[in-house]
Design brief:
Elements lengths: L7 E7 L6 H9 L6 E8 L5 H11 L3 E6 L4 H11 L4 E4 L5 E2 L15 E11 L2 E5 L6 E3 L1 H8 L21 E4 H14 L7 H8 L5 E12 L8 H4 L3 H18 L3 H20 L8 E2 L13 E5 L3 H13 L3 E6 L26 E4 L4 H13 L7 E2 L4 E2 L12 E3 L1
Parallel strand pairs: 1-2, 1-4, 2-3, 6-10, 12-13, 12-14, 14-15
Antiparallel strand pairs: 4-9, 5-10, 6-7, 6-9, 7-17, 8-10, 11-16
Helix pairs in contact: 3-5, 5-6, 6-8, 8-9
Length: 407
């Protein structure tokens, strides 16, 4: 349903997306949400994207098209936001899509500045990673934002990445704050960290934030191991430094430099590590050590995984007695042979009393699949421990937020 005064404006920056734009817009049009406007910003596309956008606008009254010279995604988002009429603003990238009743199911509270949701990272029909926010679901007032979100939002030492995914597409914003911060970010301009430049300074000024575990946004992913073009770009380091200086300036102006400085440094160093892959350096090195810092002494633990990593964990625990391993399970329990102890079916977990389940697999996506399985068994998120054995040269681990995998 379209109203003269839309409640929600969906901004879609479009650049050479002729393959995906119809699917993207169709997913927005199917929303059962009164007062919805869709603004397509054709950012100087050289393919048929502009023509397709015009056709969509002719067919649907709630769709508007703006044709602009290519200026990058931040300027395209700013152009759309300036032209918007909604009280709330959100974004969808032209090669992504959203689920049914995405906006209808989200609680838009007029007292909140931002609503944060989860994300589905879509690889193909066989693999999708469902990630809920790391931060606990609920409404955060100003004091809670400062005490619970700000200290870990850009770099969380537990996850070894941000605790607040900066993607603008997984959030719905009050119009004025997002417009203000897009204006500031567009003045700098960057092909890297454009969402980061908007979200994190904004959070330092937010009065109320709602975080929900709902997942409605589907983000297409590159094939595993493919280095993004913006990292390969010869100007990547220069652009990264611009982002660093921009964030530093606004963190200082907001009076949060002491707490944001170490987070920003870790963010910067991690990005440099990504760049090293372009020159043939491995991003990650193997370092299989028992996560004793995350499992209290004498805890009752189920060890999940009987491969090389599981055996290393068992050996280390046998030597140093970090915890009490009460059971060792693996889906291939019939094939696993060890003189140490019996490997059992993971289904036995349902009848056990334990403090933690230690996931002893090295592959990120296999670990995600195991987490989903454990959730289905009723295991709480805080009881599941997994850490990557791939540690980069700066000592940061690759980790995940406890989201779910669908295979």
């Amino acid at each position: 349903m379209f109203q003269s005064k839309p409640a929600l404006s969906v901004i879609v920056p479009v650049y050479n997306a002729e393959q995906y734009i119809k699917e993207c817009v169709s997913s927005i049009l199917q929303q059962d949400y009164p007062g919805l406007e869709i603004i397509l910003v054709n950012d100087g596309s050289s393919d048929k994207s502009g023509v397709l956008c015009d056709l969509l606008a002719e067919e649907h009254k709630c769709v508007r098209v703006l044709h602009v010279e290519n200026g990058g995604i931040t300027k395209a988002r700013l152009t759309g936001t300036r032209a918007s009429k909604g009280s709330w603003i959100t974004f969808v990238d032209a090669d992504d899509w959203i689920g049914v009743n995405a906006y209808k199911d989200l609680p838009l509270d007029n007292d909140c500045d931002v609503v944060v949701t989860g994300i589905c990272r879509y690889f193909d029909t066989q693999r999708q990673i469902m990630e809920t926010p790391y931060l606990k679901e609920g409404v955060y007032d100003r004091t809670e934002i400062i005490n619970k979100i700000v200290p870990v939002m850009l770099w969380n030492p537990i996850q070894k990445t941000w605790a607040l995914d900066p993607s603008l597409c997984t959030k719905i914003f009050k119009r004025k704050p997002i417009l203000d911060w897009l204006e500031k970010a567009a003045e700098v301009g960057s092909d890297y960290g454009e969402d980061t430049m908007v979200v994190f300074p904004m959070m330092l000024q937010a009065g109320r934030v709602r975080i929900t575990e709902k997942i409605y946004y589907y983000h297409r992913q590159r094939a595993a191991g493919v280095i993004p073009p913006y990292i390969k770009d010869g100007e990547f380091i220069s652009r990264l430094y611009k982002v660093y200086e921009y964030l530093k300036k606004h963190f200082k102006e907001a009076g949060f430099w002491d707490i944001m400085c170490p987070q920003l440094d870790c963010f910067y160093i991690n990005a440099i590590e990504l760049k090293k892959r372009c020159y043939g350096y491995p991003l990650l090195e193997f370092s299989a050590y028992f996560p004793s810092d995350r499992i209290p002494p004498d805890s009752s633990v189920v060890l999940y995984g009987a491969g090389n990593l599981g055996r290393k964990y068992w050996e280390q625990n046998s030597l140093y007695h970090f915890c009490k391993i009460i059971s060792w399970v693996d889906t291939k329990y019939r094939e696993c042979r060890t003189h140490i102890t019996r490997i059992e079916n993971p289904e036995t977990i349902k009848g056990l009393t334990y403090d933690y389940i230690l996931v002893a697999v090295d592959d990120y996506y296999t670990a995600k699949d195991i987490v989903l399985y454990l959730h289905k068994l009723g295991v709480r998120k805080e009881q599941i421990v997994w850490q990557s054995t791939r540690v980069n040269r700066q000592g940061f681990e690759e980790g995940f937020t406890g989201g779910e995998a669908v295979t």
